[in-house]
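Holo model, threonylcarbamoyladenylate. Inputs:
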Amino acid sequence: MTNIEEIKLAAGILRKGGLVAFPTETVYGLGANALDPIAVARIFAAKERPSFDPLIVHVASADDLEQLTSQTTDLARQLAARFWPGPLTLVLPKSSRVPDIVTSGLPTVAVRIPDHRVALELIQTAGCPIAAPSANKFGHLSPVTAAHVRKQLPDIDYVLDGGKTSVGIESTIVSLEGNACTLLRPGKITLQDIETAFPGVFELQDGKTEKIVAPGLLKSHYSPTKPLHLYDRQQPELPPASGVILHGHADHEPEYRRIIYTSYNQNYLETAAHLFSSLHAMEDDPGIRQIFIEPVEEHGVGRAIMDRINKAVYQYRKEA
Ligand code: TXA
Ligand code: MG
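Output:
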């Protein structure tokens, strides 16, 4: 496990403008000093990420929110107090301290406090906010272990290994421009969780928010390097060398090359936690030529899981 010496080393690299991958409770992030535009430019280069896709800034204390944003509303403070540290990202009008490269020129900035000891110690030791997208090549599978990071980004300066992440899918993102609260990306913290804590907070109700998207939220994303298709339990025949990812026990287990269960009983928190690792395992298995993944129902965290699955299968749809 990560010790304080490793964290000091990683913090020193960040202060000198280098790139450090680090664990959060959601997925691994590829971090740089958010206040150093040259360091942030290295993130875009390493990930081959288009410059129109802005980054999330990670802080260790809610006080830092005031430094990075202008017009911090009461609602923002209340959401932060209720859900931070945790997998909720708030998008607010940015302050002049935040370099334009971080926000891709947008007047807003995305901020969160991750709920992970290593991430928090890294931010505190470095003494600066850390801009970090997920630590994968643009469009590919998100990393939930240090090995996943090294597979896609072998050349970055340092990887802090904090074991497998617990949540397994990226943070929920809400925009708080004006006084409206809009869901930009579903995650473990659901719209219902936020509505329960703050009744009536969403100006646009669920279902009407679909058209409002974060700039980086493309139809195709999170893809493995092997063809991925949706799996239907009624589908009797699959091609040879198929890997199948299921989310609940199968009475009659079909004979495929390999089956991975993300959960044995449709527990969507378990499925989220094992979603990307099951896809990485199939991607890395030389005996597997194509992957089939079962859909989940879009309630609760299921909505965030289906968001990732739909984007991951998107580029392979026509080949099915
Ligand atoms: O859980 C997470 O959020 C992980 C960990 C590392 O914190 N990070 C992550 O970052 O998922 P990334 O870059 O893979 O996804 C961030 C998303 C992008 O789709 C981007 O477009 C959106 O956040 N975003 C960032 N700044 C924004 C802004 N100012 N307005 C709207 N969307 C923004
Ligand atoms: Mg990402």
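The first strand starts at residue 20 and ends at 22. The chain is about 30% helix and 15% strand.
Archived with the compound record.
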